[in-house]
Structures are given as C-alpha cells and as structure tokens.
C-alpha cells in the first residue's frame, strides 16, 4: 500500500463517523420548558421518550438561550444575537408591524441550498405582518402551525381570532384538536412520504408547554400525587409533548431513518414560573437573565455522535445552532454571524469553541425581561435589572396556592452583579466587591458589544391587523404592513 493509501486508512480508523452522507435533521424546540421539567432531572415528570433520546445522546449542561421566545427563535434562525437584528426586546405581538430583517440569510435557506427538504411544524413567532415574513417565504418548503406566540390548544385562537395555517391556507379543519397530537401526526406524515435518498430537515417548535395550561385529562390524570391544579396539568402537558416526540421517532424508526437522523432538542427559554414550570435549583426563570431563565434543557442524539451517553459541559449559545446544523449538513456557512460551528466539539467531546456570550442587551424597559449581561469564561456579570423573578423556586406539587413573584426595577447599569458560574452555578454568592477589576473589564466588553446594537424593533400595535383578520373570516393573516 502506498503512503496515500496508508494515510486514508489511518483517517478512516481515527474518524469512523466522518462521511459525505448528509443525515436527516430534526430540530425540536419545547416552549417554556423548565430546567427541572424533564424526567432525567426530576423523577416526578413522566417523559420516557425524552429520557431515552437524551441518554442515548449527549446532554448539554451549559446550553444557553435568550430570556423569552422571539429573541431565542431569531437566534436559532439567523445565528445572530437579537440585539443586532432588533429582536432583543420581549416578544413579537400579534398586531406589530415587525419581523426578522429581510436581508438576513436564515437556517432553512441554507439547508435548502445544501439539498435538504425543509419543513416547519409548530410555532413561528418571528413576525407575520407581510407574507415575506412567514415561514414558506423564509426557506421552508412547507409550514403547518401558527404565527403568534400563544393560543388556545384546542380552539387555536389568540385573542379574538384564529391562528393556524397549513402552508398559506387557514387550517380550520383542526379546530377542536389538541395541537401536540396533530403536529406529531403531520411530522409523521411527512416522514412516511419522504424520499429517504434525500436529506430531511424538520423544524419542530412545539406549542407545549407554553400557557394556557390545557391538556387532555388522560395526561394530567397520570399525576394523581400533584396537589396543585396548575402544576398537575402543566405536568400532563409535558407528558403530552413527550408522547408526540415518541410518535415522531417511531415514524423515523418505521422508515428505517432513525439511525440516519440527528435530533437536536432544546427549550427556547427558562420555564415560566407563574404558568407552573420549574427551573429548580437554578435561580429565576423565563423573563430573567438569571441562569433559570437562560440555561435550558438541551441534548443531541443520533447520527455522527461519537460520545453517546455522556454529558457535555462546554458552553453553547442559541446563535451556535444555525452554524452547527449547517456544519452537520455539509452546507455553506453564512459569514459574519455570531454563531460558532460546535459540531466537532459536541460529537467528539472536545472543549467548546465558545468562551463568551451576551445573555442579552436591551435598553427598552419592560418588567418582562432583564437589561444586560455577559458571560466570559467562568465569570458572569449582570448590569442593572436582572428580570421579573429573583429567587429559587421548588415545584408546586404540594401546594394548592400559586405564589406571586416580586421584582425590583433598577434603571440603567447599576447595580453590577458578578458571579463565578463554575463555582457558584446557582448564583447565590454575589462577589463584585471582591473583584472590581473583573467588573470593569466585563463592563468594557459589554460597551464594545453595545456599539453594534440596533434599536429594538418594537412598534405600537397596528389596528390594521384586526381589520385584515376580519376580512379573512376571523383569522390572523399577513397583509397589513
């Protein structure tokens, strides 16, 4: 054998999973799922399918997102920090003339270029006032889901109007059906009809477990030991989500596609405490820059993973998922984004390529989320208002009452709060007075990031949204901006 042949043999032995084959990719997003709301962390939760996938893959212990959902979803799709796209402030309202900037290159567009069939099923929440803002105009071959941020799980209404689409058509025929079930059915139908010789990319941002707290009784009945009505039904919603994921993975298995599929599962933000989610033992929850609002349950399972059955402690941020999935697909990376391709680090358990990130920068005050924070190595600095909840909250299983949560608004960048997350992951020991030099250095870094911050695109509601909805039979519809 010549030298070239020997070299190829060595490479094949050292890297047996490296191949030109493009795997199928499922990107699953659970809405408002808390850190402590899965069975592999909390034995009270019935999530056998999620547990199995997580244990067969790599569980991420340091996977970060934004404090609320539209910013996180914008990061997933664009690979950019939301403060650079105008999406840093709260969430897109149902009557706001806003959507992701049209000059961005999004994840599904790059997946299509790489030869993938692209499908989105579930919640969009990145703007819909113009058709060009909607999923099938942003790179997805098909879309089955809703445009807004929350709705009735059975009636599919957000406020006074209906919100469910099958591509561009209003999906009136799903009224009365539970969303997790028919989202899973649609995903299974696509899998059954898919040409397995072509790679499949499916984005599955489920409605579960966002408020309102609604679930068929057969799921909540699985939690007779939970006294609190809201927590009992929330727990049932988690199990309904788990069943939907199990049905989808069974469809993959039936088509002999599962082992050729890479599954990414993540929450979009921390659990919503007043809607019965739980992030114990992390501090805070959704709407906050505390770890409970931004460090979320996430894992990868399947094709190409060489260290299955492990936990990965490396730092990963929401902006990293776009370049990582493009890297897995063998697609062309988008230049100039904030995300980092972490695929080699994840699949071979190497150190993360990320050493810092911005939790968020937002100078537009509303009590629903924090002001500014940065992570640099083990250090975390929060400036000013950290967000709506400030404490550590156990699950509400044993109480009939839903506690109220207080917040204290402090304008601007003061006080500065410093934590060493490696030594103090629960953020119980504020140590800024001990390290004024580190505080000054991190403030300097935040100020550099601020130079690239664009104003939040958060306009006042437009009454034309209601006018157009009425013209479309009472369904929220594009065409008013």
Give the tags:
4-stranded antiparallel sheet, Alkaline_phosphatase_core_sf, Alkaline Phosphatase, subunit A, ARSB, 26% helix, 12 helices, 10-stranded mixed sheet, metal ion binding, 481 residues, 18 strands, alpha/beta, Arylsulfatase, C-terminal domain, 2 domains, disordered N terminus
User: Can you tell me the CATH architecture of the largest domain?
Assistant: 3-Layer(aba) Sandwich
Overall 3D geometry? globular
Radius of gyration: 22 Å
The CATH class assignment of the largest domain is Alpha Beta
Largest sheet: 10 strands, mixed
Total number of beta strands? 18
Helix content: 25-40%
Total helical segments? 12
Notes on the structure:
The structure is a single chain. By secondary structure, this protein is of the alpha/beta class. It has two domains: 21-354 and 457-471, Alkaline Phosphatase, subunit A (3-Layer(aba) Sandwich); 361-450, Arylsulfatase, C-terminal domain (2-Layer Sandwich), CATH 3.30.1120. It has twelve helices and 18 strands. The chain has helices at residues 3-14, 48-56, 69-78, 107-113, 179-193, 217-220, 229-254, 291-294, 321-329, 343-347, 436-450, 464-471, and strands spanning 24-30, 58-60, 63-64, 117-123, 142-146, 157-158, 161-162, 165-166, 169-170, 200-205, 261-267, 298-302, 310-312, 316-317, 356-361, 372-376, 379-383, 416-420. Strand 8 and strand 9 form a beta hairpin.
């Amino acid at each position: 054998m010549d030298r070239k042949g020997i070299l190829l043999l060595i490479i094949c032995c050292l890297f047996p999973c490296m191949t030109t084959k493009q795997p199928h990719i499922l990107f699953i997003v659970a809405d408002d799922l808390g850190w402590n709301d899965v069975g592999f962390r909390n034995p009270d939760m019935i999530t056998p399918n999620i547990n199995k996938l997580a244990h067969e893959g790599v569980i991420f212990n340091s996977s970060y997102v934004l404090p609320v959902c539209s910013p996180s979803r914008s990061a997933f799709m664009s690979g950019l920090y939301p403060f650079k796209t105008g999406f840093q402030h709260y969430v897109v309202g149902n009557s706001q003339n806003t959507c992701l900037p049209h000059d961005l290159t999004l994840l599904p567009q790059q997946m299509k270029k790489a030869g993938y069939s692209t499908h989105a099923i579930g919640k969009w929440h990145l703007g819909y006032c113009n058709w060009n803002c909607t999923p099938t105009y942003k790179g997805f071959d098909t879309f089955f889901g809703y445009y807004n941020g929350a709705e009735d799980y059975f009636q599919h209404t957000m406020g006074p109007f209906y919100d469910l689409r099958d591509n561009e058509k209003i999906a009136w025929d799903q009224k009365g059906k539970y969303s997790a079930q028919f989202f899973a059915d649609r995903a299974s139908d696509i899998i059954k009809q898919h040409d397995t010789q072509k790679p499949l990319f499916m984005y599955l941002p489920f409605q579960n477990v966002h408020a309102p707290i609604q679930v068929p009784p057969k799921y909540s009945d699985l939690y007779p030991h939970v006294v609190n009505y809201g927590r009992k039904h929330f727990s049932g919603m988690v199990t309904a989500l788990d069943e939907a994921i199990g049905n989808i993975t069974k469809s993959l298995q039936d088509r002999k596609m599962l082992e050729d599929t890479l599954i990414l599962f993540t929450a979009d933000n921390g659990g919503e405490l007043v809607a019965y989610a739980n992030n114990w033992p992390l501090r805070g929850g959704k709407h906050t820059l505390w770890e409970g609002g931004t460090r979320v349950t996430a894992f990868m399972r399947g094709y190409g993973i060489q260290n299955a059955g492990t936990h990965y402690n490396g730092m990963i941020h929401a902006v990293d998922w776009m370049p990582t999935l493009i890297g897995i697909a063998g697609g062309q990376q988008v230049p100039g984004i904030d995300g980092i391709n972490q695929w080699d680090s994840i699949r071979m358990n190497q150190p993360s390529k990320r050493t810092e990130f911005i939790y968020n920068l937002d100078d537009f005050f509303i009590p629903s989320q924090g002001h500014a924070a940065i992570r640099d190595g083990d250090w975390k600095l929060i400036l000013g208002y950290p967000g709506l909840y400030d404490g550590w909250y156990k699950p509400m299983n044993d109480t009939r009452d839903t506690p109220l949560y207080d917040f204290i608004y402090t304008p601007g960048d003061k006080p500065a709060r410093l934590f060493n997350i490696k030594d103090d992951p629960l953020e119980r020991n504020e140590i800024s007075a001990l390290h004024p030099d580190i505080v000054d250095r991190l403030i300097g870094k935040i100020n550099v990031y601020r130079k690239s911050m664009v104003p939040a695109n958060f306009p006042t509601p437009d009454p034309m949204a209601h006018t157009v909805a009425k013209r479309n039979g009472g369904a929220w519809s594009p065409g008013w901006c």
